[in-house]
């Protein structure tokens, strides 16, 4: 897994609530057996019309906006467990998603792919949208070590929560498999004492 | 200390814990399918890690399978390749696979309970968010991402933070024509799509106690639609009776021992939950959705509410509905009865009972898709297929089908579909399709009328 420590970038606003994983990557693109290429179809039906033409006013197509941070509405990533959604966002080039709320499975999937989900208050989220609206070139500065997000040249600065174990994983590029394999003895011992249950 | 059903099952599966971090949770059963497993197999292969407990994994092909001509090679190249990949991976790793055409093949959340794989007190996972279905048995069951599929392959465990607890209690008598699907759509319409995020939900009260296992599965299935990773219902005689005698159920004295253990699982009197909601059964009516998330539901007799939210407005624009309007009388050209929510025998009995002696409306294309080969066989044996065909309905072969439209069962652009599935997201049933979620009864009635009708009026 790729390491993550700090990031300074402009951000793309997606001011829509309940963005579900079917919008992030529609089911018809889930036929691949590897993790490559999903970025091309990120938000496919919001980026392209039926004639495969770009929809110019969708945020990702708007030339005004760029960057590796997506600022999205409440309850981002609800719906299906498809990790393809995290692969599509990462494949497109996003490294951070900011929202006031993340669906559970999506959040875990993002963290397992080096994609940092940052949860902020609804008030801060509104301020972030306003800051981008005011100046699309505004730079966001994220520091995972200090768990801070700031918008440069503005008063906006906030801290965010992250599970300390997951933070260590992201900073070092570790994944859960390495950790679980190191506990094999304990797992085998557990299996022996719980055989009456299964 | 008083414990909840969830606490009892969770605590019995904790192998170890990281200080200030997640716990290592042991997973009893791991279900896999063709769409979310290939990258996990690749991961282990690339890192030269063996599958730790292949005999605790059960595989089926369901998401990306055709629902006709299953005896022929799958025509779509990418789909066929994905199915072949699953077969190769299972063979190479000694994993039991019920592939297309096998008598036990079916939607993962229909076939596993049907075979007795799902049992109370277990922990179960699958790379599919509707794994919450299995909670109907008093099982901790939840959907996981593909990285986690790889973790379970490697260690039969997951690193997880224990979720908070939520209880939804519904007491009283359900009105005629109100089905388990209406109960869960009602709950989600009241609580919203993220009220359960971070929680595991227990459903309690006499409404769930009186439900069949099929009904309980429908309810638990949609827990994820309010954000809860899983839903559970305390195991009882209905549960034990359902499991008894099934293929992988414990037999003889083993079964008796298990039942004695299962009886210890229900939530202790006085145990507390982090959050509780209570509803009256009498307030629930047949439900339909009008928007693009499952929380946007109304009683079929109600009108679409006003909302100032930009997202709700976008949703109504997508559906081509307006606030204040009723959906009664809306012409509907597509009806789908199927999916892991409503494709069990009871669902088809409800539909057949309504349809018997009536005819499908000419404008309607209706797909009836059983959840498994066993359900399909039962439909034929009970004579339901004859009823459906006489009424002009098409019974297709089992699979996830038009619930997510990965195969060719797609609803055309702009068309409405009254569907017994679980998600009404934009384009869920095909690009530009518009989904209206409902019970099998409302779906069957819509197919007969060709428009949405108020089924509750037929039971007065």
Could you characterize the architecture of this molecule?
The complex is a heterodimer of chains A (198) and B (460). Chain A has 198 residues and is of the alpha/beta class. Chain A has helices spanning 21-24, 44-47, 84-92, 104-111, 122-134, 164-172, 176-181, 184-193; strands at residues 6-9, 11-14, 69-72, 96-99, 116-119, 140-143, 148-151, 157-159. In chain A, the strands form two sheets. Chain A has a four-stranded antiparallel sheet with strand order 1-6-7-8, with helices on one face. A four-stranded parallel sheet of chain A has the order 2-3-4-5. In chain A, helix 4 links the parallel strand 4 (96-99) and strand 5. In chain B, 30% of the residues lie in helices and 17% in strands. Chain B has 15 helices and 19 strands. In chain B, a hairpin with a 7-residue loop joins strand 13 (287-289) and strand 14. The longest helix of chain B has 16 residues, at 77-92. Chains A and B meet through helix 4, helix 7 and helix 8 of A and helix 2, helix 3, helix 5, strand 8 and helix 11 of B.
Give me the secondary-structure topology.
The complex is a heterodimer of chains A (198) and B (460).
Chain A: E1 6-9, E2 11-14, H1 21-24, H2 44-47, E3 69-72, H3 84-92, E4 96-99, H4 104-111, E5 116-119, H5 122-134, E6 140-143, E7 148-151, E8 157-159, H6 164-172, H7 176-181, H8 184-193
Parallel strand pairs in A: 2-3, 3-4, 4-5
Antiparallel strand pairs in A: 1-6, 6-7, 7-8
Chain B: H1 5-11, E1 14-17, E2 23-26, E3 29-32, H2 38-46, E4 57-60, H3 77-92, E5 96-98, H4 108-114, E6 123-126, E7 140-143, H5 146-155, E8 157-160, E9 164-171, H6 180-191, E10 199-204, H7 206-209, H8 213-221, E11 230-232, H9 237-243, H10 252-262, E12 275-280, E13 287-289, E14 297-299, H11 310-319, E15 334-337, H12 345-355, E16 365-368, H13 373-381, H14 384-390, E17 394-395, E18 416-419, E19 434-437, H15 440-449
Parallel strand pairs in B: 3-4, 3-6, 4-5, 6-7, 9-10, 9-12, 10-11, 15-16, 15-18, 16-17, 18-19
Antiparallel strand pairs in B: 1-2, 2-8, 13-14
